[in-house]
Design goal:
Layout (H helix, E strand, L loop, with lengths): L2 H16 L4 H17 L7 H12 L4 H12 L8 E8 L5 E8 L2 H14 L3 E2 L9 E10 L6 H11 L3 E5 L3 E7 L3 H10 L4 E10 L3 E2 L2 H15 L4 E6 L1 E2 L2 H9 L2
Parallel strand pairs: 8-10
Antiparallel strand pairs: 1-2, 1-3, 2-9, 4-6, 4-7, 5-6
């Protein structure tokens, strides 16, 4: 089990609390706007938009907000002039980090991301310096349920187009697929009454770096500081942290 996935499931739970503050709503809306701008406003023909909407609804983003975000992306409403930017670099212990940004001010976003990296003792690299370590994949987290054992769930997932199924701690199964198979896997799970706790198109590392307690604390502090920036939409890193350390850090969130 990779630590980045475990941390994702912890952050997913925390996100429900963050949504109460309203900050997460803005980031979810931004993702919908950009997805609609790039692939059109029809989620049936735009997997990225369908995923953004599904994620937003899991966090209880109001439907009016979703419709307004789509309209901005398609140009029906003004205010959709958001630019996508990506920053790459290395944190302590050689952990690769990718920061994805949605912003209406490139200079502000660059300055803020650079400041967080510098303060954390991390360093930014050139475009492409760490991107090769990651693959864009569809990832589903499914709650482990006696009704569907590993063998049955694996068969369902593979038939739907998934690449792999593995245990995510004692609570979840993680299903990974190519982006092109995302909708097929989602529909395949749903047809068997299996609801994913989370479903997203994300960056999955090809290899991970195992961290000790001190390294984990430094890295997670960096990730949290980046995610606190208004312009940052996603942060990816190829770390592997033991479950007990992740649980301890999660308790302090």
């Amino acid at each position: 089990m990779s630590g980045h996935s475990k941390w994702h499931s912890i952050k997913h739970k925390k996100g429900k609390e963050d949504a109460k503050r309203g900050k997460l709503f803005g980031k979810l809306s931004q993702k919908i706007t950009v997805a609609a701008r790039e692939g059109g406003g029809n989620p049936d023909a735009n997997p990225a938009l369908a995923t953004a909407i599904e994620t937003a609804r899991k966090y209880s983003l109001p439907m009016d907000n979703i419709k307004r975000a789509i309209a901005k992306g398609t140009g029906e409403l003004k205010g959709g002039q958001l630019e996508q930017m990506s920053f790459e670099g290395y944190a302590a212990d050689g952990v690769a980090v990718i920061v994805e940004v949605l912003t209406d001010n490139r200079n502000r976003a660059s300055s803020e991301v650079r400041h967080v990296f510098t303060k954390a003792g991390a360093r930014l690299g050139e475009t492409g310096s760490v991107a090769w370590i990651f693959e864009r994949k569809g990832v589903f987290l499914v709650k482990q349920d006696p009704e569907h054992d590993e063998e049955e769930l694996l068969e369902i997932a593979l038939e739907a187009g998934a690449d792999d199924l593995k245990a995510e701690g004692e609570d979840y199964w993680e299903i990974v697929c190519d982006v092109e198979q995302f909708r097929s896997v989602r529909d395949g799970l749903a047809s068997h009454g299996i609801e994913a706790e989370s479903a997203e198109i994300t960056m999955v590392p090809k290899n991970t770096i195992k961290l000790n307690r001190e390294g984990a604390r430094k890295l997670l502090k960096l990730i949290d500081a980046l995610e606190e920036l208004d312009d940052v939409s996603d942060v990816y890193a190829n770390f592997d942290i033991p479950d007990e350390i992740l649980e301890e850090e999660a308790a302090s969130l």
